[in-house]
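The data are passed on as follows:
___
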Amino acid sequence: MQQIRTKDGAVAGVLLKDGEEIAVEAVVSGVDPKRTFFTLLDPSQLEPGFAQRMKNLRAKGTVAKVNLALGDLPSFPSLVGTVGPDGFRAALSGRIHIGPEIDYLERAFDASKYGEFASAPYLDVTIPTILDSSLAPKGKHVLSAYVQFAPYKLKDGNWDARRAELGETVLKTLAQYAPNLPSVVEGMQVITPADLEKTYGFTGGHIFHGELALDQLFTMRPVLDWARYKTPVRGLFMCSSGTHPGNGLTGASGANAAREIIHELR
């Protein structure tokens, strides 16, 4: 979908990328609020006060993703002697958390506050091929690292120029816990906050469609007076993480929105 058409303050149809227009009575948007109101909609149709509040919604992401193609499993010396021969794979089948102490996390976040990514980032790592071998050729694996914290806008340079640097930083950090990792890496994909916006449609690179702060939660998500999935445009509803309860892939936002939409359309 390229655009939401409106008439007399209500949804009238949608315009597809191939130019086809479809008349509709309702649209449910699963993209973030800013993209909904300022990209899919013509913002000139919005009441100025609402538009201003929506512009003030904080949605600057602080995460990146690094995916690795591996020729073999990484070896974690810390597991030696703690698990049996069959327990090694099981130990790596869940989340591998790299964030040994609260000060480590604080330092990682401090870097992003000043437009840098941490030299020792906080990482949540999974190796999904342990549970689903179809994700890679036989005997090989993929590793996915959720990288915190990486600012949407860098103080020095840009993400295109520093993409490889972020990947090497993550690899270096992981190698402290799995020394053989660099030797088994066969490929690397680095997804920066800028990529999250450009490729995946997250405004500001924010994967939760808006900062999860006290003034942007509950009855104020996405903005005060519009937290029940309806919008000022009749027939337009929201169901994304930019609505209550927000983060994660729980489906709660969609389930709540569905109930409101059914009630409204009746």
Strands lie at 3-7, 10-15, 21-23, 27-29, 63-70, 96-98, 122-126, 141-148, 185-191, 236-238. The first helix runs from residue 33 to 40.
